[in-house]
Amino acid sequence: MKITKLKPTVPNKPVLKKVAAYCRVSRETTRLLHSLSAQISYYSEKIQSNPEWAYVGVYADSGISGMGTENRSEFNRLIEDCEAGKIDIVLTKSVSRFARNTVDLLETVRHLRELGISVRFEEQNIDTMSGDGELMLSILACFAQQESLTQSDNIKWAKQKAAKEGKPSGGFAVYGYRWNGEKFIVEPQEAEIVKLIFSNYLNGIYAYETSKQLKSMGVKGLRGGGFDAATIQQILKNEKYTGCLLLQKGYIADPLKKRRKINQGEMPMYFVEDSHEAIISREDFDKVQAIMKKRNELGAIAYDGIHTTCFTKKLCCPVCGKFYQRRTSKTTGGALERYWRCATREKYGKDSCVSIPLEEEHLKAVCSEVLGMDEFSDDAFWSWWARS
C-alpha cells in the first residue's frame, strides 16, 4: 500500500488585527468640528487601506473635556468594545486627545494592555505594548495634565478679572434678554412673559399653576421646551431681571473633574447695579424673594394645593432630625389607618433610621390628654401651637 500526502492548495488567510480609532474635541466650534470630521476621515482611510487590519470604526466625542471619562459616551463605548474582544489596536492622535487626567490615562492603558490591546499615540510615536511605552506615556501625561491645569487657572483668572470690572463672563442665555456682545438687551415678547410670571407670584399664583398657564398659551423657552415649576422658580430668583448682575455665583472647585460649585462665600462676588435695562422693578423682586423665603420656611403648609394637617412640619424625628410624614393604609378589614413616619425611613427604608411610626389616633389621644381636651380638635391644637 502506498500513501501520498497531498499538500493543501488553499493558502491560510492571515488573521487581521481589529483596529479602531478614538478622536475628541473639547468644544463644539465650527473650526473644531471641522477638525473632528477631518480626523474621522483620516483614520477611516488609514485603517481600511492597511491590508493587515480589519476596520472596526472611529469613536468620536465632541464638545467634552478630556479631564474625566464619565461623560465621554464614545470613549466608554470604545472601552466596552475592547472588553468584549471586538478590538485589538486603538489609534489616537495624541496623549491629550485620549485623556488629560494622568490617573485616568494610565489606568485605562494598563487595563487595555492586560486585555492584550495596544493603544498607539501617533504624535508621540508611543505604543503602549512596547517596553518603554508606559514610561514615556507617564511623562507626557503629566505634561498634558499640567497644561490643562494651567489653562484652567488662566480661564479662572480671566473670569475673576471680568467680574471685578463688572463684566459677565458667561451665562448669556437669559430668557427675556439677548446678549449683544456687551450687555443684555430686552426681548419685548419674552419680557412680557417674565412680567406675567412675577405678577402671578405676587398675586398668590404658585409656580406650578403658572407653568400650566404658559403651557396652555403655547409659550416656549429659549431651547424650545416648556416652563416647568423649577424653571419658573429660577426665573423668580434671577437678579438680572432687575437690571443688575451678581457675578461669580459659582466656580470650578476641581479643575480635573470640571465640577461647578455654588459660591457660598469661598470666593468674592460682585454686585453690579444698573448694568442693563430692567424688566422687573427692584421693589417687586425683593417682595418675591421675601415670599419665597417665607414659603420655604413654612414648607408644605405654605401651599394650598398640598393637603396638610395640624401635625405637618411639627413632628421631628428624635433619631435623624427629619420631619415625620403622614401616610395612609388600609387594614385587613378595609378601614383606613393613618400614621406618621420619619422622612428618612420613608425614603431610604427601615435600615436608614431606627425611629418608629406613630399612629395618628394615638397621637391625637396623647395631645388631648396633655392639652386637657375631652376630644381632639385641630383648631384647639393650632391655637395652642401659636401661643407656645
Tell me what you see in this structure:
The chain is of the alpha/beta class and 388 residues long. It contains twelve helices and 14 strands. It has helices at residues 30-48, 73-83, 95-98, 102-114, 133-164, 188-202, 207-217, 229-237, 282-298, 343-348, 360-371, 378-387; strands spanning 17-25, 53-62, 89-92, 118-121, 126-127, 177-179, 184-186, 245-247, 250-254, 259-262, 270-272, 324-330, 336-342, 358-359. The strands form five sheets. A five-stranded mixed β-sheet has the order 2-1-3-4-5, with helices on both faces. The N and C termini lie far apart (116 Å). The model has no long low-confidence stretch (mean pLDDT 79).
Please tag this protein with its features:
single chain, alpha/beta, five-stranded mixed beta sheet, 12 helices, 41% helix
What is shown here, in short?
The protein is an alpha/beta fold and 388 residues long.
